Amino acid sequence: MSNREFLPFSTIIARTLGDLNGVRAADIGCGSGNVTRKLADLGAEVTGVEPNADQVARARAQGGGPSYVVAPGEATGLEDGAFDVVLFSRSLHHAGDMAAALREACRILRPGGRVAVLEPEPEGPFTPIMAFVDDERPVYAKAQAALEAAVADSLLSRGPSLRFATKYRVRDAGAMLDDMITVDNGRSLAEADRPAFEAAFAAAHIDDDKGGYIPDWSRLDVFTRE
Q1: Distance separating alpha carbons of residues 11 and 165, to the nearest angstrom
Q2: Torsion of CA 117, 68, 167, 207, to 10 degrees
Q3: What is the pTM assigned to this prediction?
Q4: Which stretches within 26-184 are classed as H helix?
């Protein structure tokens, strides 16, 4: 199903950002802090930024070392030049103003600091299934366009890029639908689309020794602040 290499988070970070021990990092759009805690586990001093106060409360309840602020990515309130790395993990495409979020990332970075942007890739097996519930492909394209504009405007310069796959673990089509709606209760599946959704799920679903999964393709691009 996938011609992408399946990689754990630690390997993705090692190949693109290297050793994070002692690195000051900001995780923009951190949600409940899953990635934020992983960055802390890799040795980074991490601040998670998330506009949803309920999500930040969940993140703080998990502990694990990071600190958190409730703020949008476009106006974090963090100190100028305070960070070595700013990460957008599947969050840039959710920003109301992606260009402003990238400018804010550069503001809080030290000179020569890096912006790492992890985004889904729509060519993989996961996105066409998800599209029956919430077609985010147009905003994925807008995120890439915002990055291209930042490079063209000499705000950022391109660094390493990694394309990879992860395993979205899910038991069946119903569980996937429940998961997507839990993440965003504005999502829904039209009854007329249910047979096609279930058929697409069955075609992409793979079983291994740990259960079932859908291959999910992503890319991580690293940029340097000019």
Answers
A1: 12
A2: -170
A3: 0.93
A4: 34-41, 53-62, 98-108, 126-130, 137-152, 173-183
Q: How many residues does the chain have?
A: 226
In sequence order, which residues have a C-beta less than 8 Å from that of residue 170 and are 6 or more positions away?
Answer: 176, 179, 205, 212, 213, 214
Residue 3 has pLDDT above 90, yes or no: no
* pLDDT exceeds 60 at position 2: no
Averaged pLDDT of the chain: 95
Contact (CB, 8 A) for 17 and 44? no
Residue 79 near residue 105, CB atoms below 8 Å? no
Q: Which residues, at least 6 apart from 143, have a Cβ–Cβ distance to it below 8 Å? A: 92, 93, 98, 117, 119
End-to-end CA distance of the chain: 39
Whether 1 shows a pLDDT value over 50: the answer reads no
